[in-house]
């Protein structure tokens, strides 16, 4: 296991209008990640908010790697340039970049870890792929399911979670933080195997 730092970016849209929308699940996960580390967010010159700390315990008992949890002060479809700026600023190898994002192609609350791959229609990932010039980074996909009935995809992802569902989403967010902790302390492949076997 490497003790190199990790950059964990939660995708979403800025401002209170979008705070509890499905498209903002990445923001909600990194908020919980910052709480887990006992750290608060500070403004970064790259138009982002970043909370830096150590996460978890390495095998043998040493403190876990340094983790920068980031939320971007830009809209989803222009995420790439800011992610690139943060990667360059912190000198992060793309193998230690983890993007947390909503996933229409997974049932609600299902979590999947993925290394590399295309954007599959996700504008945030497309922007990141274009800016980094590589698809070889880690993703934590948080299932939000498909829109009901004739509801458009855009309206669905930008709608708020129903209030009665928030307790269940809190559990999913906590599981996402656990998965991130395992990625940085035990390695991506081990975390992926554990997460998917416990589906």
TrEMBL record:
What is one Gene Ontology biological process annotated in the Swiss-Prot or TrEMBL record? rescue of stalled ribosome
Give one GO molecular function term: peptidyl-tRNA hydrolase activity
Q: Which GO terms describe its cellular component?
A: cytoplasm
> What keyword terms does UniProt attach to this protein?
Cytoplasm, Hydrolase, RNA-binding, tRNA-binding
- EC supergroup of this enzyme: hydrolase
Catalytic residues?
23
Which domain of life does the UniProt lineage start with?
Bacteria
Q: Where is this site: Discriminates between blocked and unblocked aminoacyl-tRNA?
A: 13
Q: Where in the cell is it found?
A: Cytoplasm
Task: Please indicate if the UniProt record lists Iron-sulfur as a keyword.
Answer: no
Instruction: Indicate the principal place this protein occupies in or around the cell.
Output: cytoplasm
Q: What EC designation does it have?
A: 3.1.1.29
Residues that, per the record, bind tRNA: 18, 75, 77, 123
Q: Where is this site: Stabilizes the basic form of H active site to accept a proton?
A: 102
- HAMAP family cross-referenced by the UniProt entry: Pept_tRNA_hydro_bact
Q: What is the purpose of this protein?
A: Catalyzes the release of premature peptidyl moieties from peptidyl-tRNA molecules trapped in stalled 50S ribosomal subunits, and thus maintains levels of free tRNAs and 50S ribosomes.
Q: Which family does it belong to?
A: Belongs to the PTH family.
Name used for this protein in its record: Peptidyl-tRNA hydrolase
Q: From which source organism is this entry?
A: Boudabousia tangfeifanii
Gene that this polypeptide is encoded by = pth
């Amino acid at each position: 296991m490497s003790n190199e730092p990790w950059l964990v970016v939660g995708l979403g849209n800025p401002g209170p209008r979008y705070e509890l929308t499905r498209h903002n699940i990445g923001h909600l996960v990194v908020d919980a990640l910052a709480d887990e580390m006992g750290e608060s967010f500070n403004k970064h010159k790259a138009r982002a908010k970043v909370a830096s700390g150590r996460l978890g315990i390495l095998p043998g008992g040493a403190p876990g790697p340094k983790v920068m949890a980031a939320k971007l002060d830009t809209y989803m479809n222009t995420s790439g340039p800011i992610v690139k700026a943060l990667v360059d600023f912190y000198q992060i190898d793309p193998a230690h970049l983890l993007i947390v994002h909503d996933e229409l192609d997974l049932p609600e609350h299902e979590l999947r870890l993925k290394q590399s791959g295309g954007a599959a229609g996700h504008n945030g990932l497309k922007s990141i792929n274009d800016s980094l010039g590589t698809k070889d980074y880690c993703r934590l996909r948080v299932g939000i399911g498909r829109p009901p009935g004739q509801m458009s995809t855009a309206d669905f992802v930008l709608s708020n979670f129903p209030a009665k569902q928030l307790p269940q989403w809190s559990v999913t967010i906590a599981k996402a933080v656990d998965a991130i902790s395992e990625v940085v302390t035990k390695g991506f492949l081990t975390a992926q195997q554990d997460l998917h076997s416990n589906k």
